[in-house]
Specification:
Strand order of the largest sheet: 1-12-11-10-13-14
Radius of gyration: 26 Å
CATH architecture of the largest domain: 3-Layer(aba) Sandwich
Structural class: alpha/beta
Number of domains: 3
Shape: globular
CATH superfamily of the largest domain: Nitrogenase molybdenum iron protein domain
Number of helices: 18
Helix content: 40-55%
Strand content: 15-25%
CATH class of the largest domain: Alpha Beta
Largest sheet: 6 strands, parallel
CATH topology of the largest domain: Rossmann fold
Oligomer: single chain
Distance between the termini: 91 Å
Length: 444
């Protein structure tokens, strides 16, 4: 893990290049049976999208067989499959999922947007939920019931009519019971065992068995992300979510063991995850480095976490917390943890972050599971302009204009002047018809 001293050196290492993330070697190996050598991710996704658009279920079945090793026929799981999965869970795990679901639901209910109309202004907004939303839930090296809760529940709270979920099956065509149980708790309507770009394409285009959706939300690997980008316009998307990233800002009072544990919690997600510590304390930097080494040696996903620490990890020592917050605003991390005294006061200075975690009692891991806000956050510096997944992703805002005849007459002249300045005379004449009536020639 890289270590540097000084804000200038830290800023140099934290500067985002904008380069496309490289695929982990394991992912290249995973795709070789279907695509052979020589295809980059863009070419691969182009091929998958064209195939699914042309052949529907047949193409999805082909890619599910070659990439996931499952050669089944029926993609859709039944409602009874979801209910049975919930019944099969240990009671304490089911209770934990339900508690998390309750907090996610309560948070988003508090965020419900409200339509309005001001009669005096003659203006307002109507807010309507989307009809059909596709939720993508990653699979692979881990099961993610939390992602089901953090994507489907906001959609349900927003009033989405139909929630469709896609997630990759294992070689036996199975989806982890805990994922199916989460779908049951979250109120998912239809679950399809399919993953990757082919699942995104199926939801965007619609196939013989998968309904076409209005919007696709949720994180995924590089193929899923590229597919979402290429399909935007055919379907709405929530954003382009890359590997997870966490920045911890810590002062001399922070607990080294807690900092190390929080960094490893993110590093174990993905070899391309980005764990960063920025601190004002040389002592804490040394102790966190030692703790990381000690804990990594006994971590079950140590190989993955170790790769993330080695390739993207950073410990930076700076002079002041103000400098550290400046680095955070430049980097715009997905997660920003303020492990400092009086974190609430420093929060006011943070402009760019997907989520801010205030103090040692608010670790990012609780945000991943059961704090309440969705854990689907902007990554790759997009927190400069993007927001976490929320109610706004599942509703449409329609402007409403209902002017009085008096206001219409008053505004028509100005509108006509602007229209003629633009060279749009039909616009101008339409406005003038609503304006003050001109006196006819020859009248007294």
């Amino acid at each position: 893990m890289k270590s540097v001293r000084g804000v200038k050196a830290a800023r140099k290492l934290l500067r985002r290049s904008g380069a496309r993330p490289l695929m982990p070697p394991s992912m290249k190996e995973h795709g070789r049976p279907a695509f052979g050598e020589g295809q980059d991710p863009e070419q691969t996704v182009d091929r998958i999208l064209a195939d699914v658009a042309a052949r529907g279920d047949e193409a999805v079945r082909q890619y599910t067989r070659s990439l996931d090793g499952w050669d089944g026929e029926a993609f859709e799981m039944s409602g009874e499959d979801m209910a049975e999965a919930a019944r099969s869970l240990a009671p304490e795990l089911l209770a934990a999922l339900e508690e998390a679901a309750g907090r996610v639901r309560a948070f988003h209910q508090a965020c419900l947007p409200v339509g309005w109309f001001d009669e005096a202004m003659g203006l307002g907004q109507a807010i309507n939920p989307l009809e059909t939303v596709g939720v993508y839930v990653p699979g692979g090296t881990a099961a993610y019931p939390s992602t089901v809760l953090h994507t489907a529940i906001p959609a349900r709270v927003a009033g989405v009519t139909t929630i469709v979920m896609a997630t990759p099956p294992d070689a036996n065509g199975c989806i982890a019971p805990v994922v199916l149980a989460a779908a049951n708790i979250a109120g998912v309507d239809r679950v399809f065992r399919m993953g990757g770009a082919q699942a995104v394409a199926a939801m965007a285009y619609g196939t013989q068995s998968v309904p076409r959706v209005d919007k696709i939300v949720g994180p995924g690997n590089i193929f899923v992300t590229i597919a979402k980008r290429k399909l935007y316009g055919t379907v709405g998307i929530d954003g382009l979510h890359g590997p997870t990233e966490t920045m911890i800002i810590a002062d001399d009072l922070a607990e080294a063991g807690h900092c190390a544990a929080d960094l490893l919690a993110q590093a174990e997600h993905d070899p391309m995850a980005t764990p960063i510590l920025v601190t004002t304390s040389d002592r804490l930097a040394r102790e966190v480095s030692d703790e990381l080494e000690r804990r990594l040696a006994v971590l079950e996903r140590g190989e993955i976490a170790g790769a993330a620490l080695e390739n993207q990890g950073l410990i930076a020592v700076v002079d002041t917390i103000e400098q550290a917050v400046g680095l955070a605003n430049d980097f715009a991390p997905e997660h920003l943890c303020l492990m400092v005294s009086e974190p609430h006061s420093w929060m006011q200075k943070v402009r760019n972050a997907g989520a801010i975690f205030l103090g040692d009692a608010s670790p990012e891991v609780l945000g991943d599971y059961n704090a309440g806000p969705s854990h689907v956050m902007p990554t790759g510096g997009t927190a400069r302009f993007a927001s976490p997944l929320g109610l706004h992703d599942f509703v449409k805002v329609t402007s409403v204009i209902g002017l009085t005849a008096e206001d219409s007459r008053r505004l028509a002249g100005s509108a006509a002047l602007i229209a003629r300045a633009e060279g749009l005379t039909a616009h101008a004449r339409s406005a003038e018809l609503r304006g003050p009536k001109r006196e006819k020639r020859g009248s007294s």
